Amino acid sequence: MEKPSLLILDDEKEVLNALNRVLRKHFQLYLFSDANEAIGFYQDNPNIPLVLTDMRMPIMDGATFLGKIIEINSHCKRFLLTGHADINSTVIAVNEGKISHYFSKPWDNEELVTKLKSAYALYLNERKTKHLLKVNLAKNAELSLINSSLELETNKNQQKLQLISTREANSFGRLKKTFSTFIDIYAETICLHNQDVSRHNFRVAAHARLIAEMHSCDKLTTFQIYIAGLLYETGKLSLEQTLLNKPIDTLTQQEKNLYSAFYQKSYELLNRVDELSFVAEIIKNIPANYNGTTAPEHLTADEIPLGSRIIAIVSMYDNLVNGRQSQVKTPTVEAKHRIKELAKTMFDPSLVNHYLTILEERPSSSEGKVDYLLNCSDLQEGMMLTRDIVNADKNPMLTKGTTIEQHHIDRLLEIEKSQGEFFLVYAR
After folding, report:
1. In the chain, what are the domains?
2. Is 147 helix (H, G, I), strand (E, B) or coil?
3. In the chain, N or C: fewer CB atoms in 10 Å?
């Protein structure tokens, strides 16, 4: 297999020689001690996916050098070697998005190789994702689907529909199927990268659609909010699984800075497709606090897109109950209470009330299946499990597809009481 290409810049020959010994078995190396020569070479070879540089150098520091590399190829993965004295400058470079990771001197050889290989795998994954996006949306599939859907759903355009030939109608059907398939594939790709067997983004999208319908949104707005829910984690394709596997509340400040940038990355990836620009705008503003305290734009209340306000609530609740927010899964009662506490500051209070009603009534949807994250105390007769309920040893106690009866509920509550823990139940 061809080795990944890696450009290394360091003004110390001894460091270059040491890096060469460690990395030459795994990478095709291009070594430079002069920053201007390295930039000139990269301009002629802009597809090199990995760049590693020392922070402190005479001509320009490493962060400045990587800033120039970004101008040539913003998709490459960038790394810094840094000493303790340079840590403040390095943190700034992380926050500004100039680097993917930094290694403290003296570096650990095994960590260095592993991180670089992981970064290259992410680079390849991003390229595949972008290619998929380009191919599937090359013919403006979403715009055509939305326009045609509006024509099909409004009486105003019934006369136009009568003029559509059978051939055009068949073409629309194929287009609609192609677009739906693409969205599903892309959403599945996000699940696979996040190693998320719970299918968080599918559940967020379905719940967001229910809130939009309850809010009396038109079909177009509801559709855009649903797609935004499916694809809002697109930017996580640029993050390593080691970061994604940690509960959000346990991240260090540096890790939180890297993690929270995924919303902007999602926006940048999806906004390249004109027909997804509104969806991208929804995703970009999900982190915005309802009370306007979020820099830099300080949007407040209705200035924040409706879809952003909805997905912010749903994703937070799901993360709490599913154990993605903190080390311990939050009981549904506590999660609802926390969401309610954050109304008016972080979340839109009217939308919080809408969502709490949905969580209480647990309606189905005419547009597709809707799963709910529950505790055993939330179960009711007639519900159907959408995933196995497993014990502490990962052995199934009730299997997917089981229709819940009262004796199931009684037994599960009994086991919870005896073990001093609660089960997470996926049901509809």
Report:
1. 5-119 (3.40.50.2300), 141-371 (1.10.3210.10), 375-428 (3.90.105)
2. helix
3. N
